[in-house]
């Protein structure tokens, strides 16, 4: 930046019409934001298990095999912190609830920072300290009274230690909201906490530019009637008559209820981070909705939703830093469902794939992903119908796929995949073509629970089932002019656009 004339026009643009400059800034800013949005997904790395891989192996796996670029841990385990050194992965550490009262005083906070942050920082990219976890839910008056003073003391200690890039916050359960916080526009903090606890806390967040952290779990709020609403599946939605907005998923409704509560005390400008959310992939026999398909539906749709930049009805065009719970299934948790929140098993094989694996190498996946150990290492996957699916359901799949931009000519008369001329064969080709065109993420092979993924190529004779490698996808999308083309080219262009924008602001 030219300090003598900070408002000077960048030389490259000085002779261009003002509208060109505006368009350039808009496009570059929009593309930069969209790339940032693609990396908004983090994971909670819990360790309540006796069979987990060493932290060094976990860090290497996340860095090289996944697109996850941030983790949240529930302590300050030095082995984990050292493991993430020089990986570029951001780490949120946690102060134990019992340690909060002592840290309300600056000397203790300084000692804690000196012991738990400074030895690892900045080699380990510690980006945030979570002071306790869901402290308001404990109803412990001492913990609640010391929470904000501890946050302030740790913030001061970080400044004194020249670690100002580390934020300080605390995660809250949705129990902070009053019981009558539905519809979302009526969301408010619990009476007695709104002005005494949350207004001062949100003022601290505003002053320190740190986020308000929440743990929204549609899993804890759904009923039999609202299951699709909780899972991001098609549903009639919930209408908020006060705003005229219709909510098609419970996650957005919970987020907007928190936003409304913040707005009522005057702090709707404070950023929000989703510290925990998830869905278990297994439960007890009396918990039929705790299964792999629902976990895949919730977490897979969540990843797409929060990464899209679409935001929520009351917070449009916002991308929320979001941490899925959790990284691993943890075998020492007390209940079946608590043991099965993980995206991965301890051997690093995915329980299911929500789209965070690089090159979609979902080795070791379990139901609903079909396994084929001899070919699984290749990472190639196809989508085919389940064996027990009716012809009527398969015909619906064909009708749906062929109503999109997917090319169904190969299964039409004269096409290489027309024979054998039956519904199952045609549906198999159509479902895979859709899966390859729109992903391939596992949730794009769901088809109302009628699809399953295979690692065995279903091609036969002259009928070749499409498989989209990265180069093929780029090549095809450019030729077709479809939606993949827009974002792929944007990603190629964005680095240059952002670089030019920054350089000409200097």
CATH topology of one domain: TIM Barrel
Q: Tell me what portion of residues adopts beta-strand conformation.
A: 5-15%
**Overall spatial form:** globular
- Can you summarize the main beta sheet? 9 strands, parallel
Q: How much is the radius of gyration in Å? A: 25 Å
Q: Give the SSE order as H and E letters.
A: HEHEHEHEHEEHEHEEHEHEHEHHEHH
At the fourth CATH level, what is the homologous superfamily of one domain? Glycosidases
Runs with pLDDT <50, length 5+? 1-39, 361-377, 470-492, 502-506
Average pLDDT over all residues: 83
Number of helices: 14
Strand order of the largest sheet: 5-4-3-2-1-11-10-7-6
CATH architecture of one domain: Alpha-Beta Barrel
Helix fraction by DSSP (H/I, runs of at least 4): 25-40%
CATH class of one domain: Alpha Beta
Number of strands: 13
Class from helix and strand fractions: alpha/beta
GO biological process, one term: carbohydrate metabolic process
Subcellular location: Cell membrane
GO molecular function: glucan endo-1,3-beta-D-glucosidase activity
Keywords: Disulfide bond, Glycoprotein, Glycosidase, GPI-anchor, Hydrolase, Lipoprotein, Membrane, Plant defense, Signal, Transmembrane, Transmembrane helix
């Amino acid at each position: 930046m030219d300090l003598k004339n900070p408002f000077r026009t960048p030389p490259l643009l000085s002779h261009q019409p003002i509208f060109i400059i505006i368009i350039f800034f808009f496009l570059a800013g929009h593309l930069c934001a969209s790339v940032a949005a693609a990396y908004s997904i983090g994971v909670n790395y819990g360790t309540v298990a006796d069979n987990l891989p060493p932290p060094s192996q976990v860090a290497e796996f996340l860095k090289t095999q996944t697109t996850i670029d941030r983790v949240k841990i529930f302590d300050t385990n030095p082995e984990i912190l050292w493991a993430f050194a020089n990986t570029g992965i951001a780490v949120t550490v946690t102060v134990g609830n019992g340690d909060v009262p002592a840290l309300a005083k600056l000397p203790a906070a300084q000692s804690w920072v000196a012991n738990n942050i400074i030895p690892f920082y900045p080699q380990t990219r510690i980006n945030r300290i979570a002071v306790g976890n869901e402290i308001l839910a404990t109803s412990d008056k001492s913990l609640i009274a010391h929470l904000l003073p501890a946050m302030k003391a740790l913030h001061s200690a970080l400044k004194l230690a020249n670690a100002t890039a580390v934020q300080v916050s605390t995660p809250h359960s949705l129990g902070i909201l009053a019981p009558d916080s539905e519809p979302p526009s009526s969301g408010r903090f619990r009476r007695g906490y709104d002005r005494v606890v949350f207004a001062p806390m949100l003022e601290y967040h505003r002053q320190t530019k740190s986020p308000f952290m929440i743990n929204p779990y549609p899993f804890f709020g759904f009923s039999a009637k609202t299951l699709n609403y909780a899972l991001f599946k098609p549903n009639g939605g919930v209408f908020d008559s006060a705003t005229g907005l219709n909510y098609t998923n419970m996650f957005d409704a919970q987020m907007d209820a928190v936003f409304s509560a913040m707005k009522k005390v005057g702090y709707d400008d404070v950023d929000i981070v989703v510290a925990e959310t998830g869905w278990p992939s297994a439960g007890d026999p009396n918990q039929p909705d705790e299964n792999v398909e629902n976990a895949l539906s919730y977490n897979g749709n969540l990843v797409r939703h929060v990464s899209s930049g679409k935001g929520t009805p009351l917070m449009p065009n916002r991308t929320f830093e979001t941490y899925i719970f959790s990284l691993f299934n943890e075998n020492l948790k007390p209940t079946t469902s608590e043991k099965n929140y993980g995206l991965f098993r301890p051997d690093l094989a995915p329980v299911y794939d929500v789209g965070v694996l690089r090159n979609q190498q979902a080795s070791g996946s379990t139901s609903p992903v079909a396994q084929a150990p001899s070919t699984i290492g290749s990472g190639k996957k196809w989508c085919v119908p389940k064996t027990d699916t009716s012809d009527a359901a398969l015909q619906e799949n064909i009708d749906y796929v062929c109503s999109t931009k997917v090319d169904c000519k190969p299964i039409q008369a004269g096409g290489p995949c027309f024979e054998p001329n039956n519904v199952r064969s045609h549906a198999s080709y159509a479902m895979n073509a859709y899966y390859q065109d729109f992903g391939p993420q596992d949730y794009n092979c769901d088809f109302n629970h009628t699809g399953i993924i295979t690692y065995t190529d279903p091609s036969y004779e002259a009928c070749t089932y499409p498989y989209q490698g990265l180069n093929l996808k780029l090549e095809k999308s450019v030729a077709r002019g479809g939606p993949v083309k827009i974002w792929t080219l944007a990603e190629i262009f964005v680095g240059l656009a952002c670089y030019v924008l920054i350089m000409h602001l200097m």
